[in-house]
Write a structure and sequence with these properties.
- The protein has 3 helices and 2 strands.
- The protein has about 60 residues and is mainly alpha-helical.
- The protein has one domain.
- β1 and β2 form a beta hairpin.
């Protein structure tokens, strides 16, 4: 799956799913910070691309 010019492999998607299953009180914002860290997903200024990541998480929730 490609989002914002990033490839989200099956491994990353499974890691997201597992984290959601194991952490009941995890917010989408907190999850986006984790995912950005796992993927070293940053903007030109070096900040995590949390907004793009949250957009991905919304798309994923629509798939389920």
């Amino acid at each position: 799956m490609h989002v914002a010019e990033r490839e989200f492999t099956d491994e990353i998607l499974e890691r997201i799913s597992q984290t959601v299953r194991e952490t009941a009180d995890l917010t989408r914002c907190a999850l986006s910070r984790l995912v950005c860290g796992w993927m070293n997903w940053k903007d030109a200024a070096g900040r995590a691309k949390e907004s793009s990541c949250r957009a991905l998480l919304v798309k994923l929730s629509d798939v389920d």
